[in-house]
Amino acid sequence: MRFMVHDRIFKQEPINQHTIGFSSTPLSRLLIKGGEKSMAAFILLMSGPACLATWHSLSARVLETGNNISPFEVANGKDLWSYAEANPDFRELFNNAMGCHARLTVQATIEGCPEVFDGVESLVDVGGGNGTALSLLVKAFPWIRGINFDLPHVVAVAATSDSIENVGGDMFMSIPNADAAFLMCVLHDWDDEECIKILKKCREAIPEDKGKVVIVEAVLEEDKEDDEIGGVGLMLDTALMAITNKGKERTLKEWSYVLRQSGFTRFNVKPICAVRSVIEAYP
After folding, report:
1. Phi/psi zone of residue 86: left (φ > 0), alpha (ψ -120 to 50 degrees), beta?
2. Which residue range or ranges hold the O-methyltransferase C-terminal domain (predicted)?
3. CATH assignment of 98-282?
4. Could you give the CA distance from residue 35 to residue 214 in angstroms, rounded to a whole number?
């Protein structure tokens, strides 16, 4: 407990003259299952055997570069997406973990730049998982009609509502039409070539005159050496190297490249109170 008190996970408090007790802090409250800001599922995912084993196979990223095989696949026999499809328990944990992340990041997006959703009547969440992010968005902006788009086996267990339609499909093939496409922590799972394919499909799905793509991702700033938020982004970049086949976080220059190559004429970046930023891209 000394260690956890020192790191502010718990707080030590006197109960009486001879007894001390421990109480929760904002950090430990993140570990409470079912809490409003719970990150319990995310911690369980990243510290579970499937993800933890990837770090013991990290050399595969160097030794097997010609095969584009990830440490996750070396450790578990399948890439992340195939493993999730074949293992229902892992799939449920993964979806819940992404839901934990969505609750924090979407709230920061809503509070930091609500104007992004002005005039958006329909929004397709590409790679929306169990629908957590989209449900928060349509609650905050009730004029939006939401489309939760992901692989069929993912949306099959997503919650349903009057304001959200769950649609199964493949984002590399086609994406449902909407005023705007929303991608949160999706593009960082893929290399530039695959990102461009996804973004081109998003561009096809939105109106030429008023459509846009809203991307919530990290924008790395390599020049800032003493920056805690930037350090978290670099840590996430390393995690993507271990878990995905070719995923990575991107710098502003790298974002500019994939967006221009996808046919977008302009974009802007808005920082929010999170590791991520909000990128608006226009045809």
Report:
1. alpha
2. 55-264
3. 3.40.50.150
4. 28
Structure confidence by residue, pLDDT tens digits, 90-126:
988 988 888 888 888 888 899 999 999 999 999 999 9
Burial class (CB in 10 A: 0-12, 13-18, 19+), 62: exposed
Buried b vs exposed e over 22-60: b needs ≥16 C-beta within 10 Å? eeeeeeeebeeeeeeebbbbbebbeeeebbeebeebbeb
Low-confidence ranges of the chain (pLDDT < 50): none
HSE-CB at 172 with a 13 A cutoff on CA atoms is 5
Give domain limits for the chain.
1-30, 98-282
Picking from 116, 132, 131, 146, the residue whose alpha carbon sits closest to that of residue 215 is: 116
List residues bridging with 270 in a β-sheet. 278
Q: Give exposure, 121-138, as e/b (b: 16+ Cβ within 10 Å).
A: ebbbbbbbbbbbbbbbbb
pLDDT of residue 65: 56
**pLDDT value of position 224:** 61
DSSP per position, 9-72: SEEEEE-SSS-EEEEE-HHHHTTSTT-TT--HHHHHHHHSHHHHHHHTTTTHHHHTGGGT--HH
Q: Are 133 and 184 in contact (CB under 8 A)?
A: yes
Half-sphere exposure of 229 (CA within 13 A, CB side): 12
**Which residues have a catalytic role annotated?**
188, 217, 249
